[in-house]
Amino acid sequence: MNSALERLASLPLGTRMVIRYRIDGGLTDALGELTERDGVSATLATRTGHVTIQYDDVQLAKAVPPPPARRARQVRQ
């Protein structure tokens, strides 16, 4: 098992993470909360919906910190 899959298997559900994985024509990233994991895939809840990624396609996986707090909008006078 590669280190990305070991890391993915060890992280608890609910962890915010990024996974780089293979698609036709290259690689892409998914950033979101780990919601499901089974013997062949993992699912992340991203801003645009749920993304299910097959373990065979995973290149990198790591936990990431929560997003920064939104800054208050400044009104110019």
Summarize the structure.
The chain is mainly beta.
Present the secondary structure layout.
Blueprint (H helix, E strand, L loop, with lengths): L2 H8 L5 E8 L2 E12 L3 E6 L2 E6 L3 E6 L14
Antiparallel strand pairs: 1-2, 1-5, 2-3, 3-4
Portion in strands: over 45%
N-to-C CA distance: 59 Å
Give the helix proportion (percent range). Answer: 10-25%
Order of helices and strands: HEEEEE
As a whole number of angstroms, the C-alpha radius of gyration is 15 Å
Largest beta sheet: strand ordering: 4-3-2-1-5
How would you sum up the global shape? elongated
Going by helix content, strand content and strand pairing, the class is: mainly beta
Largest sheet: 5 strands, antiparallel
The oligomeric status of these chains comes to single chain
Extended strand count:
5
Poorly predicted parts: none
Roughly what is the average pLDDT, rounded to an integer?
91
